[in-house]
Amino acid sequence: MRKSLFVALAALMLLASCGKESSEKKILSFKFAAPAVEATISEDAHTIVAVVPFGTNVTGLVPIITVSEKANVVPASGTVVDFTNPVDFTVTAEDGSTVVYKATVTVDPNGGGGGGTGDPTTWSGNIDANTTWPDLGLDVDYVVNGYVYIDGNALLTIEPGVTIMFEGVGDGFCLGENAGLKMVGTADKPIRLVNALNDNHPGAWYGIQISSKRNDNQFEYVEFVNGGSGDDVITVFGKLSMKHCTIDGALHQGVALGGDGVFTAFENNTIKNCGGYPVWLNETNKASSLGSGNTYVENGSNMINLASSYLYENTTINNQGIPYYVQEGLYVPENVKITIEPGVELTFDYDRGFEITGDARFEANGTASQPIIFRGTTPEDLWDGILFGSTRNGNVMNYCQIKNCGPDDDWSVRSCLYIRSDAKLTLTNNVFGPCDYNGVGIENISNWGNVTHSGNTFVDCAGGNVWLESGGDWNGAEYAPNQILNDLP
Q1: Within 362-426, where are the H helices?
Q2: Sign of the Cα pseudo-torsion (49, 53, 59, 60, in order)
Q3: Domain residue ranges in the chain
Q4: Rounded alpha-carbon distances, angstroms, from residue 166 to 247, 389, 420
Q5: How far apart are CA 208 and CA 234, in angstroms?
Q6: Fold of 27-107
Q7: How far apart are CA 68 and CA 253, in angstroms?
Q8: pLDDT digits over 322-340, tens only?
Q9: Sheet with 330-332, side-by-side order of all strands
Q10: What is the pTM of this model?
């Protein structure tokens, strides 16, 4: 009887223990495999702290977590986690009770081989994974030795306040087709890219070449000092947003667009002390990407170089406060519109001209205080003038000055402005001359009814104010071929 009672009691105790759920809910270990780092866990404060090596991308770390038996954790072990900010890990016990651990990951600023606190970090070789260079709080935070290729899909992020020194004339950054470079400083903590201390002259380091078309290629509040030992401090074959940046000193150009390069933004920048042009554009249509607020001073050729003559698409030439240098002349084909803003000054080389043809659209609408100027690069550079043939409605020249033109037997202008038959144009408040030939040339007076004109003046036109190539009747008056008039008919 006693034996039976004992067995029954033991069975009841076993059943009771089996029915009780665990309340254990601890994080026992927290580590990363790449990089190989084990975190410190404070059970009292429920915090987790990990310090990862310099250059680690904290936006995509994978924690390996061990928790109490029968407990689980969210985010789960093996999950990709962004540790840009502290992350809460919630541990749930078998009985449903929970506890939250706050995990913080920081990057060791002295873990990149800099030699300890107070020493800059030296970098050489390529970058093929997402990398962040934080501000180390030094006069020079990073020393770049060599030409650094940013390859693959890697994004190099330079944080506000960082100063990077390039050791030699061949040192710089080259951004691959799929890589990214993000340098976003602030007005109070600009990012600086500078020459070596013992090599303080323009062209002391190579520059930055961008082939990538990523949208996160951003430069803001960045200072580039004495770069451009090649052609340019910044060469863009891809895409770049550039705002509030300063280029100070370059052996040749400040910034250049080549190939399919384009600015997604270009605003409030200062480019100064460059040996060549502050801005060089391989295609004239890219002038549309130049935004407002830019300043250009003390450059060897303080003009914006438009290297190509042919407009491929609708283009607005913005007023940048300095002239544009039209290296090969300008040609506006059919179905393309060119808009020239008030205050723009276009300078042309000797024997170069400006042709608007077919049904192209031309709008040069200046103001009395901001006229649009077309001239030779120097007073001695007699350019070929404007050959106007567009038959489209809406073409305007208002408050423009066209001067320094000269005769060219191979160019049908022989005038500041030559208007072809059937061309349509409104001419108001313009000044023609001084020039070595005619102010305005008219191909056929019989078609003059397509031109509206008023308030135009002529200054020192050596060949005459108005030249009629073909005579004929217009508005009841007879005009002889090759007739010179004192004013527009």
Answers
A1: none
A2: negative
A3: 27-107, 112-276+284-295, 309-489
A4: 15, 53, 57
A5: 5
A6: Immunoglobulin-like (2.60.40)
A7: 63
A8: 999 998 999 999 999 999 9
A9: 330-332, 353-356, 385-388, 415-419, 438-444, 464-470, 483-485
A10: 0.76
